[in-house]
Amino acid sequence: MTQPEASPAGVIHNIGYRAYDGERLPRRGVALALYSHTLRGVFGLGRAARSKVVPFGMVAVMLVPAIVLSVVSVVMAGQGMIAEPVLPYTRYAMVTQAAVAIFVAVAAPQAVSLDLRFHTLPLYLSRPLERVDYVRAKLAALATAVFLLLAAPLLVMYLGALAAGFDAGTQTVELLQALAGAVLFAAVLSGIGLVIASLTARRGFGVAAIMTVLALSYAVVTSMQALVGFEAGDMTTAGWIGLFSPMTLVDGVQVWAFGVETSSPAGPPEGVAGAAFPVVTLGVVALTYLALSARYRKVRL
Amino acid sequence: MPVIATQQLTKRYPRVTALDGLSLEVGDGVTGLVGANGAGKSTLIKILLGLSDPTSGSAQVLGHDVRDDGAALRSRVGYMPEHDCLPADVSATELVVHLARMSGLPTDAARERAADTLRHVGLYEERYRPIGGYSTGMKQRVKLAQALVHDPDVVFLDEPTNGLDPTGRDEMLGLVRRIYDDFGISVLVTSHLLGELERICDQVVIVDGGVLLRSSTVADFTRASAQLAVEVAHDTAGAAAALTAAGLRVSREGETLLVEIGAGVDGDDTDDTDAGAVHDTVRDVVADGYGLVRLESRRHHIAEVFDPTTTGPSGPTSDQGATDDAA
């Protein structure tokens, strides 16, 4: 971003002060600029090379299994061994959840902690942007980043499935289901990640806290489900436990809404009771948005 | 249309009243806002930016009401905060380009304006380095650049000379003056140092404890207190008596007689013709055998006028204070 200007040799023109009479974007345009700036920043674009390591590392970690699975699909379908992908699209996010968690843990503090640490917010808020625009732009940018991270391997797998000659109609429907799930994963994870990151000005704390919340809740919930479900044989209770970790929560919504295979030891209850999963998911999204808004209403200027 | 106008502006926090019925009007040019720490300067600026709602009263900036029209107002205003607010890990160019976009400039215009503005505030090659390595003076310049980059109609500068050494102070004050003279942008600049503001301001507003103490042009401030220093060859005491007899207010400082121009014996404010009359009287009286050695006008610094000991209810400045200006 920072190439020195090419200056004509040896001549310095003092051009004096020039007023600006050009276009000025309204609030919406400014919020959009903040959104794209944050989205680029999350992936380390326009920043130092070391800022790109983790985001693109996680992109690679997400893509490699998808590429392998696609190759497997093509080869095995060629030998007539399978008629559908080895791994359903909707399970991909759950299988790669560790990489997703690391990505969110690094991206969320990148999006908000620095502005808090360096007290940069007055510089934003003394401009046309309102506090709520700032919150929305940051949330939308992080959610977009997480969605892109989840959607890219799904598309790779989809192309692999088409190349393998699986039924295109079925594959498209299943892909769309998984993309809908990815939207929910993105909304829930970015909301939780940003709320945690906005509480600390120290990026390291933010990373550690988000990792802990996402990874630990997943580990505890799936172990509990296994204990209650398999050891005690109570699959219904085991299913309900899935509400208590972001990953199993959204996975529950996919299972309930699309009737797909669950990736945790126990899926959500069937029928009306299972509707608790989408309701809680939407509740979490709304709550994290409200919490962030409240957090930024109080920011010291 | 005044650049800034407030009517009975009051801001109360749970435990303190930061502003108490502040009414003032600020026109074009460089205006100094002076007061001790905690006098309400920063609170006033936050209200004027629409970032903090007043408890009561109203305020307009450039004709926009601060309560209803915040976004429109802020697109025409620049703000340089008092405290450190710069990210350490980006270069000045990147930051200022980004903030220009945050003010609504399209990307290309933002790049061009950022480069121009950084040059105008005196940042050259170093603008490509991360801000974390800058000196305080350079950081203040970056803060100033981001306030100017979108070519606002007015800028609020909160303590721009904070933390600068004497040379840096002079350079910053020169820059502030240029913002109006060369760039045509009106300035509201705060400081707790009256002395440094009188050098660059057209108007000075003094607040204390959230109350307006005084608001007038710098010229008025100093003219109101101007004196003539008179030295005579012999009989200083006699000359003093003669001048007093001629209806002037005279005080003695060693062998120098100080004749008040600012306020005649009757206490009225004077204008330039009165000052001329005082000159004439002094000349005529002294010519009567005292032997004039030296006659020069002496202009008080505002700081002397605004001596804390004279600002009480009975002090000499109170008659021109809050009551007059609030009316």
UniProtKB/TrEMBL annotation, chain A:
Keywords: Membrane, Transmembrane, Transmembrane helix
TM region positions: 53-78, 98-118, 139-163, 175-197, 204-228, 272-292
Keyword Membrane: yes
Protein name: Membrane protein
Organism: Isoptericola cucumis
From TrEMBL, chain B:
Species lineage: Bacteria, Bacillati, Actinomycetota, Actinomycetes, Micrococcales
Protein name: ABC transporter ATP-binding protein
Record-linked InterPro entries: AAA+_ATPase, ABC_transporter-like_ATP-bd, P-loop_NTPase
Coiled coil region boundaries: none
Organism superkingdom: Bacteria
Membrane-spanning segments: none
Comp. bias (Low complexity): 308-318
Pfam families reported in the protein's UniProt record: ABC_tran
Record keyword Kinase present: no
